[in-house]
Amino acid sequence: MLTIDLKLKDIGEREAIEIIANILDTEHLFKDTIGIGDDCAALDLGERYLLVTTDVIAEKTHIPRGASPKDIGWHIIAINLSDIAAMGGRPLGIVVALGLPKILSVNFLKELAEGMKDCASEFGISVIGGDTKEHEQLTLCGTAFGVVGKEEIMRREGAKVGDVIAVTGKLGRGGSAYYALERKTESKKTIHSLLRVFPRVIEAQVLAKTSSVNCCMDISDGLASSIYQLGKRNDVGFEIDLEKIPIAKEVNDISTNEDELKEMILYHGGDYELLLTIKRERIKEAIEAVKNVGTSLTPIGLVTKKKENVLITSKGMEALENKGYEHFRGEV
Amino acid sequence: MLTIDLKLKDIGEREAIEIIANILDTEHLFKDTIGIGDDCAALDLGERYLLVTTDVIAEKTHIPRGASPKDIGWHIIAINLSDIAAMGGRPLGIVVALGLPKILSVNFLKELAEGMKDCASEFGISVIGGDTKEHEQLTLCGTAFGVVGKEEIMRREGAKVGDVIAVTGKLGRGGSAYYALERKTESKKTIHSLLRVFPRVIEAQVLAKTSSVNCCMDISDGLASSIYQLGKRNDVGFEIDLEKIPIAKEVNDISTNEDELKEMILYHGGDYELLLTIKRERIKEAIEAVKNVGTSLTPIGLVTKKKENVLITSKGMEALENKGYEHFRGEV
Asked: What is the predicted ipTM?
């Protein structure tokens, strides 16, 4: 009999997660726990949830060659805090496990720790613990935790037909950086801005307090991929207006045509903005709340009953593609 | 000017941790937080502490070749729970970030998840979240959390002159397994027992309730190394009676002389027992409490005023050496 020995590269990250999630039992989850499938897990603390999230990055797969240790240290804290933000949480602390090559210089380690401290301080927390182990490849695993009121928690579930879909900040920083690195332009500055993610911790907390948000996630996997995930989860579709998407300056600097621009803002990961669906009647309030803390919140479309994701461009309607970066398979 | 570019292999894991700890600020620690230096970090939850611990392992540095995915999955959960146990905590849950090679088989991933589930279930918790990323080398990072009453928490700090020092279970399983692997005897069974760590979660909770414990840590770095760490932390010394140390059957099977025996039970890592100092007048109560849950607690010596660590053997007194496995430097 022929047995097919499937590899992770054949199934991709999302199917791998599903396989794991189906095996791990939920029998021992405590009452009111939120398990796998949101940006964070959440444990019942009475009036509040304890949010927990973990994110690992490694040298060859996530860190561009030439990255400074300070930027790497900042990055591992920032991407974890972005998940706390996605659920509206206030960060409490973070632990970081480091896998370090034994030939790593002590100075590199010092600067790595400084970068971690800088990012943690920026968001009012400390690195409260960790682990250091020998590893052939520089590997960093952060686990952040925070709290959020049960009335305020923002989840991936909750989008309603008629909701406005909106994003914080401007999109395409991640995508344009990948293009720039491939074209070998401005690499130092580009790597710096790629790694210096500024998670929407403050914006998320003010949004959570407005009661205007029906669902939320961060778009680290790319905008289109995130929209597909929200659509599947909520049994809805999305109508996205390309011209309304707020575009980062870096994208305009580097993209040479609309296809490239779309790749950078729709189909690339590495932006850590929030994607939210918001009650139509409260969209002004939400925009105002985010504006008050110095950031923009931009409506980019609507939640639709029809379970398709479409993109409205100057040329008409087209299908939004379900593609983005997926681990194990690369660009799909 | 000559600049010396120090590497981690020149300074070792413990100095590396000190460097990191000195850089990371504690300014943003919330009231009553316990930071770096104990088996877990602890955050103030009012009457209780939230305990958090993180531990990373990787293919080439921590997982013997030929290990089964189920055993690896069990191991990453177990070693994290051992840190929760070391502080007397009740585990609440765990998240696991996986760095996976894209050519890993889907079956391997399934069995890995099953091993994780088995260990979590054994201790009444679930894996509530995680991350999967592409990595050249199989890398697993677990972060467990738990709770402990403020009156019950066991810390590395607290040893008093005159305390009895005691260990749970029997020592040398880790050390004897390394010897066996080096000698290539019984490798399948040996790897299985090396990875199937059984953390002292129940014993720790029972001990924490007796109010007999002055300090506690797990001995994953080796008994001698742990004793040195407790001595330094508490400004005391220890007198250890070699003949009182409870020895695992595997050690007797494989050691050919007293020096080898000492290496296995004193100077090798990989045992996940608890090392505690206990108020002299309450030692019987502590032993009884652990016996009631099916495990032994064995007094092996005393805490002394003289800040030296000595070993009493059949031949007399000798210095307990400050050696054990240290990451980046290997056996030191």
From this structure: 0.89
